[in-house]
Amino acid sequence: MERNFLTQTDQKIKELIIIRTCIWGVDYAEPKRRFEIDNYNVIICLAILLWINGCENQTHKQKFDRLIRQLQDQDPNVRGNAAITLGQIGVGTRDAVPVLIQTLQDQKIEGFVRSSAAITLGQIGTEDGVYVLIQALKNDQDTEVRKAAARALGAIGNKAIDAVPILIQALNDQDRRVRGSVAYALGQIGTAEAIKAVEKAVSTLIQALKDRDAAVRDNAAEVLGMTGKSAVPALIQALQNDQDATVRKGAILALSSIGSENTVSALIQALQNDQSTIVRANAAKALDSMSVIYPEALEAVKEYRSRK
Question: What's the domain range around 64?
């Protein structure tokens, strides 16, 4: 790829799109013509680019300052929208972390505003927000805030490793949506340390496989896929008995991650007998990936495909 004539980058910057109709030949001329461009025109173009960048930066700064002020607005809707927007603009949002933390911790503020603050802290991804998100998940009385805190910790990922013990405890939260978000977060963190912690909580996750909410069961299956063979019997039971096809699919993915002879047998059974096309297709894919080690997996897949 040719490098950008003005900026010497591999990509065209958006400011050039704005001015290309005004200044002919600066970045869109044929290569042989670029060297014929008058130096005076180049200087003018660079000046315009600098001016545009300056205006854009100033606009972002003004927008950011306005959003920070709106976080303290009397109208809760304004505060909530400001918290969400801060997570979307991407520029200068780390400077908003102290205000967002203060918003999340203030119990006098409406739950949906604090939930928005939690989500935005997750989008920003700073470690500074991990402690306050852990506390919100552990102690906040508002279900939506706890759910948002769990999701935010998952969004932060491996920087939120300190949250794993609390997340495991929160698998027993009284609200099914919180439990689902917690299981999701554990899967997103996924570091070696997190996996070790999850392995210690296999029994809790196996209980989550029996949760009345399908999303919780599905997320629990995904997380169990990071553990060892001790989870295999429970995952096989979920694959054979769960009424939700999404959960059965999740069990297949988890079993294929663990891998064992018992796993192959259960996957072949699902391939041959499951009523869901999606489940059978995923069973075939899982068996295909295991066929080098287990020849019977390859035979089952060949037979399945010959019948299609």
Answer: 1-70
